[in-house]
Structure formats: C-alpha cells, structure tokens
C-alpha cells in the first residue's frame, strides 16, 4: 500500500484499485482522424501545443517525465511549485507543458528558447488526466470520473491549469479552436479507461497538418544563406528510415546557427535512408538523432510532405517513434470504437 493517508475509494471511483504508486507510466495515445464530429458519448477538449509530460507528485516534490521516459524536471524549475497546488500526498498527472504568447495562447515555437532569462515565456502545465492518487490506481475508471477527481484536488494557478472539456458538441468546439489558431482538438469516449497504448477511444483532430520527422542530413546553403540550405528528413516504417521531405522554410538566422551546431557532432559519411533522395545541393549526412516538428499542406501520392515548414525541435521524442501517421476516416473510427464498447 502507498504511504500516507489513503483517500476513501468511494471518493475516487468504484473501479479504482488499491495499489502502490508506479515509478513509470506509458501514456495513452490518440488516433489521428480527418474531421471533427459531435456525439453525446464523447467529450472534447483542446489539443495543447507543447511537450507531453507525466507528472509524478510525491510528498511535496514534482517530477516531470516525457512520454519516452526522458527527465524534464530540470528544464522547467517554475513548475516545482505544482506539488503545493494539488491536494494529494501522491498523484500522477497527465498533461502538456506549454509556453504562452503575449495573448496567453500556447505556441510550440516558444518552447525552443534556451536558458532562463527575462525573455523566457510563461510556462504552464495543462493537466487533462489523473492516473493515480493517494493509494489508488485510476486507470480502470472512466475519463469523466478521472477528470472529476482531478478537478477536486487541483488548485489552478499561473503554472498549472485544468484542461476543461465539453460534452457532445465537438464540431462547435472545433470551430472555437480554429479561431484561436490552436493546434487541434481531442475527442475522448466518456467511458474510456486509461490504457498505455494508442487507442481509438482517444482521437485527435488537427487544425493544421503537422508531423514529427527525423533529421538525417542537411544540404549546403546557397546565396547569402548561412549554415545550411534545408534539412533532409524522413520517417520510420519498421526499422527502415524513408525520405519524406526537404525542410527549407521556417528558419531565422538564430535557428539556422543553433541547429547547425547541434548537427555537427552527428556528421557521418553515409546516409540512413533506405531510399536516399536526390538533392540540388551537396548533402551532409548525420546520424538520425534529432527530431523536428513541421507543418505542411498535404501528403503526396508517393508519401512526401508538400510545402513543409519548420516549427521546432522535439527534444521529448525518440526518433524511432517518428512514423507515418495518416488521417483516418472519423466516422469509421467512431463506429468501430462504439462497436468495440458494446461487445464488452
């Protein structure tokens, strides 16, 4: 049993299970679908534009870990006070670390800033799930039950906020998301349990197509441009890295310089692609260790990104997790999730 005072089971949810606090969590992942929808059996919330992070709260201390078990605590010292704003001795939260712009809107690009200086943007942890609290594992509870308990123990502040949701009205909610130029919307079956894998009970609908890609090389610059011309990027299928795009847009001089420096220790004489692309300029191959996030207009018929633009580096992602992810038909996925639920 977990140390400390235990919450009464009835105050958590009927399906809560007495358990010691886990030391690691594999987060639940969503399936990408092509359009918003409305359904009374689903809840809808914002898809936050930041770094996914599991927060372990243990007797006054907060520890943040990425979805790939990368330690993130030291990068965000302002989040240490979160432990005082959750009314629990022990808890495991699921949420997103975000940087806010001047209007209070999360912008992923702002997370690229290094160091702790006067220009550092406000950092906020948006919490959307509660996995464990004071002696009880909540993964078998429904997402609505988990969020209700989360709302009870959370004291919102300038560094931690509850990710609110609405019931049923997904299409109207999506229109509001678009107005604020947010990344997208999450849809979750109201009765869904928390499972450590990708699930059709959690869906994501993006306002702009975005993709995490592996940087495997860079081309020489042309004209007055310094450092490099474009990043040569790919995605994994199985264990093989396939070329998907040259990324030449979205950089300023500081970005070009900083990314160039990061790539220098990774230089190699051979490429990692199974299908090495043709380039207009000489290419320098690097080991596939860096991950970039890009936005783009569409997938081409031969699985290339059309009009890709660099957004930022993803320090929280394992390159091997960067795989082809195409939108699936919303109606078909929702129907399948409903049928699977009825069979249980």
List the helices and strands and how they pair.
Elements: E1 17-18, E2 29-32, E3 42-47, E4 51-58, E5 61-66, E6 90-99, E7 123-133, E8 136-137, H1 143-153, E9 160-162, E10 165-167, H2 170-179, E11 184-189, E12 198-206, E13 210-219, E14 231-237, E15 240-247, H3 253-263, E16 283-295, E17 298-299, E18 305-306, E19 309-313, H4 330-343
Parallel strand pairs: 2-12, 7-9
Antiparallel strand pairs: 1-8, 3-10, 3-11, 4-5, 4-6, 6-7, 7-8, 11-12, 13-14, 13-16, 14-15, 16-19, 17-18
Q: How would you portray this structure in words?
A:
Strands 1, 4, 5, 6, 7, 8 and 9 form a seven-stranded mixed β-sheet that branches. The chain has a five-stranded mixed β-sheet with strand order 2-12-11-3-10. Strands 15-14-13-16-19 form a five-stranded antiparallel β-sheet, with no helix packed on it. Strand 11 and strand 12 form a beta hairpin. The chain is built from four helices and 19 strands. It has helices at 143-153, 170-179, 253-263, 330-343, and strands spanning 17-18, 29-32, 42-47, 51-58, 61-66, 90-99, 123-133, 136-137, 160-162, 165-167, 184-189, 198-206, 210-219, 231-237, 240-247, 283-295, 298-299, 305-306, 309-313. It has 344 residues and is mainly beta.
